[in-house]
Write a structure and sequence with these properties.
Distance between the termini: 46 Å
Strand content: 15-25%
Number of strands: 12
Oligomer: single chain
Number of helices: 12
Bound molecules: NADP nicotinamide-adenine-dinucleotide phosphate
Order of helices and strands: EHEHEHEHEEHEHEHEHEEHEHHH
Largest sheet: 6 strands, mixed
Shape: globular
Helix content: 25-40%
Radius of gyration: 19 Å
């Protein structure tokens, strides 16, 4: 008897902007898997019932995006270590009928840098800009990579303080008003704020204060070359854009739901860049 097609989803509210269907459907076709991956718009009030219905609906699992990541964190029966450290769940799957939640954003961030600039792991000091939801995943990835001097700067200082406290002694707060000082001697600079997105303003950082072998990366990927990355590139610094994080974070989920560990290829990247269109 033919095996039933496996089904997965991305749930958000709204969901129209998500590039996840493009990524997962590319892999389903690439690996010849009889499966489906569909976007689902789920209102916050309906989200717990949506998760509760997965097992009965024969769904293998899926991605969870804004605004459901914290609700998923609270609702799953079990979580992986990354989700516990980050405080949010972006991937769910069923294990013997039990709903498990994971977070693949830190993995995606690290895998992208491993792919593009593997020496990032040698950085002794990192400067992280921003203390929102995404910053938590970046701090977890940096800590897991063994970077012991992490400076965290955020426009709203109290948010940076709270986040730093939760991540232990390797993370200290740097002043948003004195970013250039904080950047001095940083081997890695990571923008996790929404600055750099079209119409959102930009980050001004004195690139000549960074060490010449510093790496500058931005998790904003629309546009691909953010003003921060352009300035760093012009100063001769190594740069890594944020699109690879989006592509790599999708890998563990696909493997859990469909049983094949997919590759992040230039073909996939080009497909998503084309979809970003003028914005990229
Ligand atoms: P969030 O929770 O809303 O946090 C936004 C951050 O940006 C906060 O630190 C906020 O500072 C800061 N910010 C916003 N406007 C600012 C301004 N005008 N001046 C200074 N700081 C400002 O958002 P998030 O979920 O962390 O996402 C942040 C960005 O990362 C988004 O652009 C998102 O698309 C991108 N992202 C990319 C990936 C990827 O796979 N590449 C994954 C996740 C997120 P305050 O605390 O002071 O408000």
């Amino acid at each position: 008897m033919a095996e039933t097609a496996r089904r997965a989803f991305v749930a958000g509210h709204p969901i129209g902007h998500s590039r996840s269907p493009l990524i997962h459907r590319h892999w389903l076709a690439r690996y010849g898997i009889d499966g489906a991956y569909d976007p689902v718009d789920v209102a916050p009030d309906d989200f717990p019932a949506f998760l509760d219905g997965l097992a009965a609906g024969g769904i293998a699992g899926g991605n969870v995006t804004i605004p459901h990541k914290e609700a998923a964190f609270r609702h799953v029966a079990r979580r992986d270590a990354a989700a516990d450290a980050i405080g949010a769940v972006n991937t769910v799957w069923l294990e013997d009928g039990t709903l498990v939640g994971g977070n693949t954003d830190a993995y995606g961030f690290a895998a992208n840098l491993d792919d593009r600039m593997p020496c990032w792991r040698e950085a002794e000091r990192a400067l992280v800009l921003g203390a929102g939801g995404a910053a938590r995943a970046i701090l977890h990835a940096l800590r897991e990579a063994g970077i012991t001097d992490i400076r965290l700067a955020n426009r709203t200082r109290t948010r940076a303080q709270e986040l730093a406290q939760g991540f232990g002694p390797n993370v200290s707060v740097a002043e948003w008003q004195a970013l250039d000082d904080a950047a001095a001697e940083a081997g890695l600079v990571v923008n996790t704020t929404s600055l750099g997105m079209k119409g959102e303003g930009r980050i001004d950082l004195a690139m000549d204060r960074l060490s010449p072998d510093a790496i500058v990366t931005d998790i904003v990927y629309v546009p691909l070359r953010t003003p921060l990355l352009c300035a760093a590139g012009q100063a001769g610094l190594a740069t890594v854009d944020g699109l690879g994080m989006l592509l790599h974070q999708a890998v563990p989920g696909f493997e859990k739901w469909f049983g094949v560990r997919p590759q992040v290829t230039e073909e996939l990247r080009a497909l998503v860049v084309a979809d970003l269109g003028e914005g990229a």
